[in-house]
Design goal:
The protein has helices at 16-30, 32-36, 40-43, 52-72, 74-77, 81-100, 122-129, 131-150, 154-163, 182-204, 206-237, 240-245, 248-254, and strands at 104-107, 110-113. By secondary structure, the chain is mostly helical.
Length: 260
């Protein structure tokens, strides 16, 4: 099982401003649940779903919470408003998986869920995708769960890095619009990816930073393909009634077409 050592600050590559931004991203991520608690989307949905529609709609809760996090980040808010909408629409359901690494912890090699966020619903995931697929997802994110367990500064930086990437959805679905100000998005994404790298290199050293960064990137590339398969599985079994029962936010994020 891959683990990381407890974070210790060594000779720093980070400036005082970098350290302030890293701490701000951590505290902003922690406060996302409280900030989103008054949102009507998150307050009216079932935490423990009983059917497929409820299961998909519960993602709205985590989505609204992540939006509350992103809205606190000055660099994100400074982007063109239409570009922010495009990035959220096409990237959020991919990066939301990193958010779920905070809902699972390991205890003596047994995976358990905690109540800091909306947990995965294992039985419904297995009923739609099968136990083998569920275990594949769990194993895929196991190292990220470890990172989140030992260091609460990594995942917020990862979320900012990936939500700003253009063209995350590998193929299929609704064509992604061209950004209005691609260079600003690129500069902001570069800022956070470099900040993540400098933090890892400072805290864990170069070799371990390479391993952690490589793990994050390769696991996410694999997740992109699994995510497409999950979307197709859902679309294949969603009835017209199921589609009608989806929240407007989930219809948009899943790009679920209405059945004729």
């Amino acid at each position: 099982m891959e683990t990381i050592d407890e974070p210790v600050i060594h000779q720093s590559l980070l400036t005082a401003d970098d350290l302030e931004r890293i701490e701000y991203s951590r505290t902003s991520f922690e406060s996302r649940i409280e900030l989103a608690s008054h949102d009507t989307v998150s307050s009216t949905l079932p935490i423990l779903p009983n059917n497929l529609t409820d299961h998909l709609n519960t993602h709205s809760i985590a989505a609204v919470r992540l939006l509350a996090f992103f809205k606190q980040m000055p660099e994100f808010n400074q982007l063109n408003v239409d570009d922010r909408m495009i990035l959220i629409k096409f990237n959020l359901m991919l990066v939301i998986a990193f958010n779920y690494t905070f809902t699972i912890r390991n205890l003596d090699d047994n995976t358990v869920e905690v109540d800091t966020d909306v947990p995965w619903n294992k039985s419904l995931i297995e009923s739609v995708h099968g136990n083998e697929f569920y275990m594949k997802i769990l194993q895929l994110f196991q190292p990220l769960i470890q990172f989140a367990t030992y260091d609460d500064k990594i995942i917020p930086l990862v979320l900012m890095t990936f939500v700003l990437l253009k063209g995350l959805l590998p193929f299929g679905g609704t064509p992604e619009p061209i950004l209005h100000d691609m260079m600003s998005v690129h500069h902001t994404q570069t800022f956070y990816s470099e900040l993540l790298w400098k933090y890892l290199a400072t805290v864990y050293g170069f070799d371990e930073a390479v391993r952690i960064m490589s793990t994050i990137v390769t696991r996410f590339l694999t997740w992109q393909l699994l995510h497409v398969q999950m979307r197709e599985n859902f679309r294949a079994i969603l009835s017209e009634t199921d589609v009608d029962g989806l929240s407007p936010l989930m219809k948009s994020l899943f790009n679920v077409p209405s059945k004729n």
